[in-house]
Amino acid sequence: MPPPLQLFIGLVAGAVGVGYFVYGKKESRFAAMLSGIALCIYPYLVSSVLWLIVIGIALLAAPFLLDF
Question: C or N: which end of the chain has fewer Cβ atoms within 10 Å?
Answer without folding.
Answer: N
